[in-house]
## 1
Amino acid sequence: MTTSTRSMIAFLQEFLTNLRFQILFAPISENQTFENLMVYLGQSPTDQAWFARVLYLTDVQRSLGQPVPPELELLEVYLPLQIQAETPQLSALATLLGKLNAILPAGHFGYRQSDGVYLRHSFVLAAQDEVWPFAVSETLDIFSLHATVLSQVIADTAAGALSVDQAIRRAEQALGTPTAEIDWSPYWVSEN
Amino acid sequence: MIETTNQPTLLNLPPLLDSYGLASEWSPASAEQPYEQLLLELGVDANGEVLAARVCWLNELTGSALNQAGQTEAAAALTDATEVWMLDWLVNLERELPAAKQPDLAWFAITWSQHLPFGSLGVDGEGRLYYRYVWMLEEQQVDPVEFLKLAQMTTALLQGALQQLEAWAHSDLDSSIWMAALAEGKQP
């Protein structure tokens, strides 16, 4: 952990608390060699608390002895949604998440065996730069919104209760906007 | 319409990118395309295929889409709400794959994304692989040197991801087994 990342986590804690986010601060301890924040973002439809984790991924990599480019810091916001899928539904779930990820304003949905469906965004920072705190609070707001309006659709798809097409229509209704297809037409490939 | 600087903000990038061997083409906002855009060749993959990126302001893209859909109030609300400027990087990774692997591609993309330091892979409604990252900025302007660094890091991570894709595509393993092996620190 660098001095700058440590002070930045403390600064973010203060900044986000002033914006009325409820935060748990996890300091360095015997069991943890990096600091992180746990930010409360509401309750899931099954009444589980959603906590987003904010930490420097590069601190974790350093603590594990992994190489980190000296000029780079990665600040990660990670929200596990605890939505698991059985094997037959994995393909439909991945198709839905891929379509949603093409249009989300910040962050993306992913899937990990341990956490199920999650939301994640990483800020890429030059080592001498501080993260802009409004971007972090904006990301947390966006995650809270997407968890609230999309988690049920995703959970229903993961359970096999909705097809991908049905889920997309529900997502469009929930977001109030069409999930426009990516327009590849302007793609330009050099002749060289 | 969403209010922007009305000044080109990506126009100054091509000369610097060109000096580092990255071809790019900037286009201004127009009636047909109401947002400025930079098309950029990040590099090539192991098969010599170009990694083509489209970079534009998501705020402008969304505002334009809302206006086109007749949702002018929503577009105006977006303008009022804009506190963060989002530069949207979208990379076309459409590749020829063995037919047996195509149905599994979306799962490969979603689960491989956990290994990326930033951004994500996905498959769109037409079955095409893409990479996307949204770079959040305080103002609607870009530091060319930071942009170049991000482009170089993106190229490196996509070249690594495509190597994995190529190896998996020509294996007889489904993506779940492939990813499970990687999670245990083994290269399948």
## 2
Amino acid sequence: MRSPSLLSAPLVADWLDFSEKDIVRIRTGKVELGQGILTALVQVVSQRFGVEPSRIEIVSGVTGKTPNEGYTAGSLSVPHSATALEAACDTCITEFCLRIARKYSVDKDQVWLSAGQFSVPDVADDISLWSIADEFGLDFEIGDAVERPLTNVESADLPRLDLPQKIAGSGLIQDLTADDILHAQILRPPRLGAQLDTSNLLPEDRNTLVIDGSFAAVVDDNLSELHRKAERLGQRLKWNGGVELTAAMLSPEALRHLPAEISEIGKPTKSADDHEVVVATYTRPYLMHASIGCVTALARWGEDGQLKVISQTQGPYQLRSALSALFEIEESAIIVEHAAGAGCYGHNGADDVAGDAALVARHYPGRTVRVSWSRAEEFSHSPLSSAGEVKLEATLGADGHPASMSLDIVSGTHARRPGTAPSGTLLAELQRDGVTKLNDPIELPEMHGYGGLRNAISPYSIPSQYAKLNLVDPPGLRTSALRGLGTYLNVFSIESFMDELAVRAGIDPLDYRLSLLEDPRARDVLSRAAESSSWDKRPEGGTGEGWGLAYSRYKDRAAYVAIVAHVSISETVRLNEIWCIADAGRVVSMDGVRNQIEGGIIQAASWALLEEVRLTDLGTLPLTWDDYPIMRFPDIPKIDLEIVDSPDKIPLGAGEVAVGPTVGAIANAVAHGLGVRLRNLPYTRDKVMAALLEGDGARPDMNGS
Amino acid sequence: MLVNLKVNGNPLEVEAAEDTTLLEVLREHLGLKGTRFGCGMEKCGACMVLVDGEPEYSCTRIVSTLEDHPIQTVEGLTDDHPLIASFVEHQAAQCGFCLPGIAMSALALLRRKPEPERDEVLAALEPHLCRCGAHQRIIDAILSVGAP
């Protein structure tokens, strides 16, 4: 498969630069989010050229300088950027060898590359990547990657290049400063779309405030003074109107009452009369990114009207377009440069804070304005991941196997990033204009693996499958992308339902799934997960000790993942251990893949057991870690992870692949341990207690419709 | 006001408003950026430092109360410090934001108990949040510092 990244960057010169002697400079549009992608790319190029990693420099995510590879998202950085770089390196080597062969009148197979130096029989000239690049340039159209790297460098995993610096305590955007720094804090409305009323402001207040429509910010050279001012002035601002939130508006059940736009996969089928119909409904709550660091950006308008923004964005070019629309200036007048921030798991406030900084900076040309959100802003103003509900329906044949399966999903959108609409994608713009009605929600198309419909068609051999998404726009809530998008709800629902069907048919959930899975790689990961967890020794259910398994292939095209979970349930659910087998195709960085999958498991476990956006007593979205707890060290499960390396297969993404099967395995383990099926996430103490006391209305011997 | 501090063994004189937090002095006055702002409410541990050898949240400690109390931050640990070396060896991070604070709590634990049990590591890290899910690597890295 040819990397789509090569479409807009088709030449070797777009990706590689040998202008500095002994240094290979790489350009990539993908950016470091804590996932180690830049190290993986350096490793690829190091192996291709046989050049030490210390001689490789990487330029990442700078508009106008690096290829536009879209967003760093969707578990696509290795499949797209690493394969593009491999092809660029291979084309470069092939073209250089051809030219060297012609120059010295030898056969091209006699030209050999080692450690950046070319050797030609009986030629003593110094021929290197650098001298040949200087002589012939790099304007070669990139062809396909060759089967095997052309040099014989060992392929041991490269340790993360950025880690020593980050562990020592620098190297993140939060740590950047400048000589001309001006700190700014935005004063936020308590409700989406509220209009600013400045009638209480004193005349002198206006000197320290930036006000643009309903956008208001304080600035100061000194951070402590900034916070004091923000506190003081914040109390004098009044806000009118906007969307008042209620607790009921945050419940998944509220979604069914909203007007919906329909998207479908497949066609609904009429079941045969003699088929039994089984129905179950599952829900998930709203979730937050909850990164430990607050999003930060630096912006500076030059005297010449040029804007430079340093941002932790996932999509520098898309952010540039959004800023161009916000300020009504040409894109060519804006440079967006990526700098790594704290962990990013989707469309968080990274782009928003860049818009904030740029809007404030416009009032202070020649100053570098730094905005770093407060914890309260991070929680209450970042985009949310939508709640959702799935009504699952299956018709069963005589053998207890499904003849048809359909999902009726309701969800807010997972796609409100810059680029999804010409305007209205940055918070600064929404606040300035007092926008109460956000852009119409959209569903991502099949080519992006869908949004709410992601993984809505089960991987199982079921003669007829159908999925319908009711896409809604929950008022007052800005929903967008969080790791895995719709896969969290859909895989949770499908994998829970498969267990319910297995119990109903009196068949072990492992055997039930294997009888419906044809892809040998899927069967392999599931069987191996069962083996490593000693699944065959799983005790009877209902004892408080639960084992559950789940399988999924993210987007039907990324890694194959099977997971077994072991829980102990008293009043709360304690996750003891996770066994995970993942087949990610050819692995470029083994430790990178392992790190991503471990992280995905822990994050999804935290979602499943703890996380839910609730209204605070102040009637707002969460403001503190007390309002939105996440998993802490004492609750971390033991993780047994095995990666199947399939060197002859194409690399499959890994960043988001574990979230679906993790929640599915936990759901099934909880049902097994309790003897009662819980169909509403998360599995908090309240839910467990309710199930223990009265059942959840969802006995294993559930009734048909 | 003028405050006399001892940070990573160095005596320093800092001019700061009376209610300035230790975190702000470290980051903004002294340029020590390893200690991070995460929440400002003692809930996430990103700002953890050692005061008199014990873990303390620097986001709420007022700097004027810290004269004569030696302060240690991640910058006081050299690259070849066994704890830092172990973090690197275990690739015990994703984004790395939370790690300097975690390193401080781990350091206090290892000084008190050079070969801690897993449960003791978990308890020592209870004040700390990590969102990337690097927990297992972090735990393993700390356990292996003291491992014989």
